[in-house]
Structure prediction request, 325 residues.
Amino acid sequence: MTTLLSTPLTPASTKPEKLAWLMDRYFRLDRDDALISRLHMLFASDNNGELTAEPRVDPLTRETRGLMLVGNSGTGKSALTMRTLRALPMFELAGRERKGNTLYVTVPPEATIKSLAGRIAKSLGYLDINPRARAYEAWDVPRHRMHERGIRLLVIDETHHLLRKGSGRDVEGAVQTLKSLLQGEWPVAVIIAGVHKLRNGIMTDPETDRRFPKFELTSILEGSREAQTFARSMQLCADKVGLSLPKDAHLAERIVFAEGGVVGRCIWLAKAVLSRALGEERAEVTLQDASLQFELEYGAFPMSPFAQGSWVNVRQALLDGGWSR
Prediction:
């Protein structure tokens, strides 16, 4: 199913409004519910079993819990996390001037564990950390600010950038700092997200590794339940903007095959194909729409997954020919 995060369409909506609505859509897949179930492991539930923003704390160690979201580039880690936080009312994203109990930060490629401390502090309204402070001293500031602002969940996206080796970098210290965020006077629940390099780096320290259970995002597998969910999401989007999909053409399945199941690319291509037909004010999407859009992205192929004919036959011909994008 799709999730609507903006003003819904009406029968009077114009073409530009439909195009904007379409490009703003989020395709909810099976992994959305899987992430929410993992949030129940990090946060307490109320008497009705509803999720709260109060982290679970081990009564013996006084530690909170962590989660590692890991997957290849394009598997939708950032979109999944941000959409989930925005969709669940108990999590309110905080900013410099905005109150909230959740902080989302993205680590740039050049960041160190010390510069991340400064980035978090600035996000919570603190101007500058003493440049001469050691990394462990610098972290006193964001810890204090998170306590002061009532932050209960810290999400660190692109965390693998902290584990790059080089001059001025302390990979071991970075790993230890991630663990320490779950401890102390104001422990917070922590979600770290990144590519597989993150998992490999965290595994070098067993104490940190066991505190961050892994949730791996994989590509959509052909014929899987999630592939069916993707197909339903595309159909719902088409219906909403007044388009019909080509009957028995298995367009969604072709998109999954064409993009190797990489979630972000599958969703983008599906939207682009629908937008092409919508922009030309046609009522039906065609395989030609998908073929032209795919060619714009990747160049011409002697035969593509959007060739005319039975999808079973086209797919087999592509496999027999060793097709790859």
User: Anything to note?
Assistant: The two ends are 28 Å apart (CA to CA). Residues 263-279 form the longest helix (17 residues). Strands lie at 2-3, 26-27, 43-45, 51-55, 66-70, 102-106, 153-157, 189-194, 214-216. Residues 1-5 have pLDDT under 50 and may be disordered.
